[in-house]
Amino acid sequence: MTKKKQTISATSQGLERAEKALQRLYGTQQQLAKKLEGAVGRSTIQKFFKGEKILVDKFREICKELTLESQWEEISGLVDSPDSVDLPFPQTAKPAFEKQEDGVDFDELVQEVRKKVRPYYEERYGTLKVLGMREPIKLESVYTKVKFLDNENIRGFESIENLEKVYRQVNRCKFPSQYQGKKEEIKVANDKQYLMVLGSPGTGKSTFLRKMGLEALKGQEGGFKHNCIPVFIELKRFTSSDINIENIISKEFRICGVPEPDKFTSKALEEGRLLILLDGLDEVPTKNSTNVITNIQDFVENYNKNRFIVSCRNAAYHYNFRRFTDVVIADFGDIQIDLSLD
Predict the structure, then answer these.
(1) Which of 67, 74, 147, 207 is deepest in the core (most CB within 10 A)?
(2) Buried b / exposed e across 209-241, counting CB within 10 Å, b at 16+?
(3) pTM of model > 0.90
(4) Other CB atoms closer than 10 Å to residue 155's CB: what's the count?
């Protein structure tokens, strides 16, 4: 009878995921150790984050505290087994990916990767910290649909300030009929392959992007009708002029435990199976902005089968993105304007 393995360790990919959870939840190993005092010792926690072997029950306890309990086997690199963890170590499950060159339906791979990405995305981008509340809350529990002005309506005004002025001059109840009309925000995202979302600070640009990613991850059950996997990228991370968007996407998949992330990223981009969410164009450091803009536009041209949503503050938007449809979130302080895309 095969003897079950009593100790396991995290793979490099698993450690990267654990480190991110640690930074988000506790900041340091010392704080985590205080939380686990009496259950897991400090030295065991140190071994865990060094990639050294520790007892299986301690390994799972640490993962549980990092809200990664359901992912402990992926973090340890173990292939699922019904009655034993005594497996070659480390080992990563990648049955479908090994068949990529054998003509396996790429839709199946997309479904498989979506399942891996969803818990990570929901944990990182599907919650919000609300002032005065100790625990984060689910984004979808407080999400309010946004409304847009499209290119045609925007061009009718010299500026957003003039648009607001016209609204206030009309009877504070409605815009003239030529500017009325409603359209669901999810329909805008479905209709426009390249979407530039503009708006003032605090109007919900980032939240809208996150929400579209959540909808895409629901597959056929969600409102996003394209078979894409979302990748959320905060552009403020582009602190260097030397950026490689494909590498950044591949790293995101690697963190999610996707086998052969470089290979899958290349294939997914080629097939147009990604929804790339680029948040905060205005947050790119000024010294890097020209290079970043050029890189993004070149990337879009090279992988134009994919879908893109970019967000930016309207006051900072001075660019002309090829292919993109510009929309502005209609929100003027305490006034809710009932205006959307025609």
Answers:
(1) 74
(2) bbbbbbbbbeeeeebbeebbbbbbbebeebeee
(3) no
(4) 10
Helix (H) or strand (E) holding 137: strand 137-138
The percent of the chain in helix, strand and coil, each rounded to the nearest 5, is 50, 10, 40
Whole-number Å distance between alpha carbons of 105 and 275: 20
Per-residue model confidence as pLDDT tens digits over 49-85: 989 899 888 999 999 899 898 888 889 887 443 333 4
Token pair for 304: 């134009």
Residues of the chain with pLDDT under 70: 1-5, 79-104, 150-184, 331-342
- Of 331, 342, 319, 322, nearest to 160 by C-alpha is 331
Tokens of 171: 């009877």
For domain 127-329, give the CATH superfamily. P-loop containing nucleotide triphosphate hydrolases (3.40.50.300)
Domain boundaries, the chain: 7-93, 127-329
Question: Considering only CA atoms, which of 196, 296, 319 is closest in space to residue 246?
Answer: 296
**CB–CB of 139/126 below 8 Å?**
yes
Element housing 310 (H / E): strand 307-313
Residues 239 and 195 sit within 8 Å (Cβ to Cβ): no
Nearest to 319 by CA among 287, 294, 337, 285: 294
